Amino acid sequence: MIITFAQIDGFKNLEKISFAPHEKYNIIVGKNAQGKTNLLEAMWILSGCRSFRGSKEKDYISLKGSRMSSSIKILDSVREQKISFEMEKSSASPKILSINGVKQKGTKSLFDVFKCIAFTPDDVELIKGSPERRRNFIDMAASQLNPLFIVHVTKHNGIMNQRNALLKEIMQGRADEGILKIWDKQAACEGALISYTRSEYIKKINEICGRLYNTISGGTELLELEYRSNVYKPADLENEPGRDAIEQYYNKLRETSEYDIRTGCTHAGINRDEILIKINGVNAREYGSQGQIKSAALVMKLAQAEIFMKRSKEAPVVFLDDVMGELDESRQRFVFDIIRDMQVFVTVCSENSLLPEIKGKILRISGGKIIEES
């Protein structure tokens, strides 16, 4: 899969960006705050994923602007398709998302069209950050393999919002406690499936992470990922979720329901899961060095790319945002060896910070505009 054309205007500081990317390497060069990351972000949002910078949609349009548009053409092994995103500040329906000119109701359909993986300096939060950050990573990566999975995650999030709102109503005496069972049954159906999917994905990524981290550490360290379900024991997740698994999940919710009512929030289920990351058997979040944490986060993203490519037989597009400049020559070679069959967009302050053999299209950006293309 490659991006064959990109056109962006009004996204943050970007103005009238239009270019045909190189099928291999695209090196985006510029000083800080000139729009390098904005260019990657404007294309990334067409993948169906939330901004990797945490930007809200209302912030896509520049303060001085009134509208934004971002569109790309994608060529996969079957055909070329066009994805576009348009938004106006003053419009009653501010967002228009379309695939091949057909308007879409949401971003779910994009998972089937544009497959992309982004590496950013914030990836260290996969190790250092909250359990929610790790859960979101696994859910997003699993959704790239099976776009229907994001439907179950979204549905479960909606159920939890309703359940937590109901808990507060019951706590204040404005609702019947019996209604809670209705939401618990729905949450159990979705939660059991999500638990199983997370477990299966972590098994896949753990195997690849172990191999890659062993290589990047020179054979001296072992990286392990372990799924710790709030509901199930590891043996419970060996088989696909059936009625017994749903019943087990439901019973877990019922066990904590009285405490949930007293506190007004849910204390059991997949929103309490943890993905434990260990280096040589020790919790990396608590005891990992800065170098170990950076390497572990990098390896997790590389493993995500490898899993996707093996599963779909289609290479994802790769964004490397301000990460290669910090890597020494041997680690750069390690990364580029893994992604050698993928189209790559890399941001740097100077192309001299990259390996000399990394050659492709150079886009120089200043003040939100491409000032040179070579």
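[next item in queue]
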Amino acid sequence: MKSLCTAALVAITLWSAGSQADVLKLAHFMPPTHPMDVQVMTPMAQAYNKATAGSSEIRIYPAGELGPGPKAQYKRVATGVADLAFILPDFSADLFPVLTSYEIPGRYADGVQATQAMWENTSQIEAEVDRAVPLAYWANNATIMITRDKPVRTPEDLAGLKIRVAGKNMASLIEAWGAVPVNMSPTEAYQALSTGVVDGIYIGPTAFSSYKLHEVAKYATTNIPGSVYSFLLAMNKDAHAALSDDERGELQAVSGKALSIKAANAFADAGKTALVLAEDSGVEMISLTEEQIDAFMSKSPFKQGE
């Protein structure tokens, strides 16, 4: 009798272990309130989890729970620390010359246009992301200039100011305008601006809501010639290979170009809302004239359409 009970207990234990979903860890460094989590990653995970009916589950680890900051995200997913990861190619620009080429100022009107262009070049991007499986890639809004003490209307206004950037393209542009680029994670921007470590932040408008920059900024130049950021969602190769054919099909259905366009549009909508938040909070919104825009563009190290 005892042996029968033991056998039954073992059988139940094995059945329970086998019936649990395989958890896929999705890592990102942003707060869980960020538009990319709320409007893109969480809905994607929910759609996948529903479609797989418990055989596999994406679980999101936000705010650097699997490792802080954006710099090591590609390494985390390539080595299996995370099964999926949200990556800023700027922070590993030497590894992503194709993806970062979409960030050159003046090349695209907005993130949606840049995203469409990315998906016309899938073969080169997939070859570039050779340590993981690219699931989606897109761009966000063009960067704006957010400053604490000095309004920016001309390149001369930037002379000597320390400006937070991400990546070499933005750094080259800021240097050409006479400022000092400081490469920094967006999660560090609030503290850096509030304490005077930097004088300004060159970033997308969603930073007002995502990183609360409206609390420490006084000015925002909203149509300064800007760069778009490129983004990448990638999956560990072994984790991808371990999925069943059905699970890979469901993952493909909730990612790819459709998710990328959705993400670019989500950023566009969130950017508009964030600018309203900033203005309502007392941030002075500065809109440059065509002549002022030309003054910035004339100093750009990048040729139009490069």
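[queue empty]
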